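Before relying on records like the one below, remember that each one covers exactly one chain. Contacts with other chains, cofactors or solvent are not represented anywhere in the record.
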Amino acid sequence: MSPDGGLRIGVTAGRRGEELVGALTRLGARVVWGPTVAVVPASGSALEHQTAAVLATRPAWVVVTTAEGLDRWLAGIGPQRPAVVAALAGAGVAARGAKAAAACRRHGLRSVLTSPAERGVELARLVAARARPGDRVTVLADGNGSPAVRAELAAAGLAVDVVAPYRWTVPAAAGPEAGGCVPPGDLLRELCAGRLDAMAFTSPPAVDGLFAVAAALGIEPAVQAALAGTGTGDGRRILVAAIGPATAEALEERSVGVGVCPLQPRMAALAGALAAAPLRVSSFAGPGRLTLDARTRTVTGEAGAVALSDLQYALVASMARRPGMTCPTGVLLREVWGAGAGPAAGRRRLEVLVSRLRSRLAAIDVNLVTVPKRGYRLELAAPAGVAAPVSRGGTAVG
């Protein structure tokens, strides 16, 4: 991107949007920032009640699903902070991803478990496999209350207490501009009018919030069409970017294809991936089409359709979100199994899955290319070496 290009990118991020907006602006983009998710802190009395329960029960495990939650909790409990830190230090601490683990270290806690794929349910399963029946587990919940994490732990016979320092909410569609932001309704109108080249999403709640605002304004079909590339009227495609697999899945569940997904789920990586993406042009430009349906785990190409297993589908989706890019082995291991790239057994497991998937996709003229010592790349057969667009739920990507 360059200042002369003046590409316009819509950003839906809430509290940490400034980081992404700043990075994109430095890369020469013109950014329309309309947060579709906001944070509401818990009341002092609610936090006090939840904290008292933790101190009374002395949990065997603490599951930290969010760095922001840990920071807000310890900052909001005043003189009880030393007692809470001591209680947490005496428990096994599980952190969902690098940010949560870093927050634990900042507060003097040593996390003994992390989820490489940064998924809360996977972290809960790791805890359940190590905890004893009846152990008490404190879940430091995200803004949605982390219901899947709590359910997983409860199903394993563990006693679950919840600390929820904040909750997510959807901002009002209209209102005054503030802090460099426009109301989310203004962002959606820019999108539907075809005045944006790309949309960047940084969390599943931001995806849900965007469609909630669209529904409140009565323009959900127009927003869906714009994101799908069928509503701009001039044939241009909106490039949809997701910060990581969880956000990509939230979009794909709404039949919105993802054309940019950085190898690491970080704001700076997302900005860099957008800067390198071929904006204004489909990353898979050509006559063919590949459709990935998350609900049926079916892949449809020019030569027909094949049904895939859950693991096979996860592998295809991981590569399809990065059209034309070689996906490193470590990234695929993390996103398909939640495992790091270290053990040779993990690499062998990936090779076996690739071999089985390759034979399934060959029937519909889709190739899985091995790039020695680097990883794998998805290629679609097309005349004269021209690649073809990828889509999910019938929606073209890129």
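The chain has three domains: 1-37+170-281, 40-167, 282-398.
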